[in-house]
Design a protein that fits this description.
The complex is a heterodimer of chains A (about 300) and B (about 300). Chain A has about 300 residues and is mainly alpha-helical. Helices cover about 75% and strands about 5% of the residues of chain A. Chain B has a two-stranded antiparallel sheet with strand order 1-2. Classes of the chains: A mainly alpha (about 300), B mainly alpha (about 300).
Chain lengths: ~300, ~300
């Protein structure tokens, strides 16, 4: 029964990784670029949630308290996180895609977007550090530690809700990609941007949408992280995103369902390694598995061999 | 020399050594995001070889042995890792570094999470000499036939193959020598500070070193030198300026400008600060001036 409980904890943790892994995989699948602004956006969303709920925003704390009231302040946190992260995504799109594309014809030549995104990561982390310091900060969860039991298995409400929410979002995303006009445009860009342009897809209008979608995924997972774990700091993005990257590779780059399964798997692996061999050892199974997969089956479990072949 | 300048000089020299370790594979277009892993290997290997509880050999020998050890590991993993390309190579080297740090932190005889003391001390002069030596070596390395092969692979791998370059050999050599240089850097770190802990060599270190190289430029051997000097000296200058004008805010937020600067650099000079064209232009300008003065004499 203890094993089953650990499995459930792993799934709950994995639910968080799923959304970040899907964000990574979307950008890699569409634009062939490993986006290191995703950890930054995740962190910014989590910090915004914390700042709103504890009244630490640079301005407007009283107004928000007046409009939403003490009990619903978390709603304001969610909205602010989503707005800030969406705007940041649009700025990031300018500097990691649009200007490169306009100037060099192909944004994914060289390692340009990768380096710019690392620049954004550094800038965002230090903005947060200079505003609130680098120590861990805590917030009281608005939902308390509400739990329910099935048999002798313990579930916490916020965790179950976030797992359901993250799977729901991925289902919606998958529907958009498979069935809608926007999705068809996205898939055509992923295949070959030049041909997509010739076929009348407005690439420069679709790409910002991809960035905003990844930004939204980061925002929602960051907010859920704050509610579930109640402790945030300027570096949580790095911690969560590195594991999510492992999940994405496990599932195969550019594959949304692969990222879902990979994300859940790394969550389970992490919980079980902590349970069996201790917290210090947790890096070895995850990264060892990743290294082995990259060497022997670089396409991951469900990947596509055409992705990541170019220089960048 | 004041203690502050001395500590900054050490950081600068170590950064230069690390940067050249990443530069050699990057010169052939291979991005290595696992610097921290190789540095960990070098630091712990040299420390343990030198430790009286370990092998107990003298420091010069332990440093050389650490370089060979790191080189051997780099050589062994070069074959599987170089099978991967582009984004996969970045991820594979990144994963390698995480595995190394995860394993080191769990090895009791290396002090586990508490870190490991190192016996012999390397004075400032030794670290400086090592950095100068690595720089000169890298310039020489890039001027050899192998260096030329690396540059050609960077520009176009298929054409290099057509011209008879042994691509696999060149890549493995660059990766292995780069690993050895980072091993040397790690050994110098351990012997200078006389204390190592795996947590000091984290993801951020790998990211910063890769940034030094890519922003300095991978086309010439000047790139990593310029990148490392620029990115260790400028933040310190800003900090001193901030202290002088009494602005805590500037001291805290200098890395925000640093990040923004990286983003702008990629728009303005995507191939890094120093490019081959720039090198040629400077060289011909210098040669031209020499010629002018020669004529007037």
């Amino acid at each position: 029964m203890l094993i089953l409980q650990q499995l459930i904890n792993g799934l709950m943790l994995g639910g968080l990784y799923v959304m970040v892994a899907v964000a990574f995989t979307l950008i890699i699948g569409m634009l062939n670029f490993l986006n290191f602004t995703i950890p930054a956006l995740f962190m910014v969303a989590a910090m915004m949630m914390w700042a709103t709920m504890t009244g630490n925003l640079p301005f407007g704390n009283e107004t928000l308290l007046g409009v939403f009231g003490e009990a619903n302040l978390w709603v304001a946190g969610v909205l602010i996180a989503i707005i800030v992260v969406s705007l940041a995504s649009l700025v990031i799109e300018r500097f990691t895609y649009r200007y490169m594309k306009a100037k060099y014809g192909d944004a994914t030549e060289h390692a340009l977007p990768l380096v710019s995104s690392l620049g954004f990561l550094i800038a965002f982390e230090h903005t947060v550090i200079s505003a609130w310091g680098s120590d861990p900060l805590t917030v009281v969860s608005p939902f308390g530690d509400a739990t329910f039991e099935i048999g002798s298995l313990l579930f916490s409400y916020p965790q179950v809700i976030s797992l359901v929410l993250s799977l729901g979002i991925v289902f919606t995303l998958n529907y958009i990609i498979r069935r809608t006009k926007l999705g068809r445009a996205l898939r055509s860009i992923a295949e070959r941007p030049e041909t997509a342009t010739l076929m009348g897809v407005d690439v420069l209008r679709i790409v910002p949408i991809v960035y905003v979608i990844t930004g939204l995924l980061c925002a929602i997972s960051g907010v859920l992280f704050t509610i579930n774990y109640t402790t945030v700091d300027a570096y949580i993005g790095d911690t969560v995103a590195t594991v999510a990257i492992a999940g994405m590779v496990l599932g195969g780059l550019g594959n949304v369902w692969g990222a879902v399964i990979g994300g859940l798997m790394v969550g389970i692996i992490e919980v079980f390694s902590i349970y069996i061999v201790g917290a210090d050892f947790v890096k070895v199974p995850i990264w060892g598995l990743l290294l082995i997969i990259l060497i022997f089956k670089p396409t991951g479990l469900f990947g596509h061999s055409a992705i990541g072949k170019g220089k960048f | 020399m004041s203690g502050y300048l001395e500590s900054q000089l050490i950081i600068l020299c170590l950064s230069i050594i690390y940067a050249y370790g990443i530069f050699l594979p990057a010169a052939s277009g291979q991005l290595n995001l696992g610097a921290a892993g190789f540095i960990t290997l070098g630091a712990y290997a040299s420390g343990w070889f030198n430790l009286s509880d370990g092998l107990g050999v003298s420091m010069p020998l332990s440093v050389v042995m650490a370089m060979l050890f790191t080189g051997a590991i780099s050589f062994a993993i070069a074959f599987p890792i170089l099978r991967t390309r582009g984004v996969y190579m970045v991820l594979a080297t990144f994963a390698f570094a995480e595995v190394v740090s995860g394993l080191t932190i769990n090895m009791e005889f290396l002090g586990a999470a508490a870190g490991m003391p190192v016996d012999d001390h390397a004075a400032v002069e030794i670290v400086v000499i090592a950095a100068i030596g690595v720089t000169l070596f890298s310039f020489y390395f890039m001027s050899t036939r192998l260096g030329l092969a690396l540059r050609s692979i960077h520009d176009d791998e298929s054409v290099s193959v057509l011209f008879g370059v042994n691509v696999r050999l060149a890549k493995v050599a660059a990766f292995t020598v780069g690993g050895m240089l980072m091993g040397l850097g790690g050994a110098m770190y351990g012997h200078h500070y006389n204390y190592i802990e795996a947590q000091a060599f984290n993801v951020l270190l790998s990211i910063y070193i890769l940034l030094y190289v890519l922003l300095g430029g991978t086309q010439t051997a000047w790139g990593p030198l310029v990148g490392a000097i620029f990115f260790t000296v400028v933040p310190e200058l800003i900090r001193n300026l901030a202290i002088e004008i009494g602005s805590d805010w500037l001291a805290d937020s200098r890395f925000i400008f640093f990040g923004a600067f990286i983003v702008l650099m990629m728009v303005i000079r995507p191939e890094g600060v120093v490019t081959r064209t720039m090198q040629d232009r400077v060289a011909s300008a210098l040669a031209g001036r020499r010629k002018d003065t020669g004529e007037t004499e």
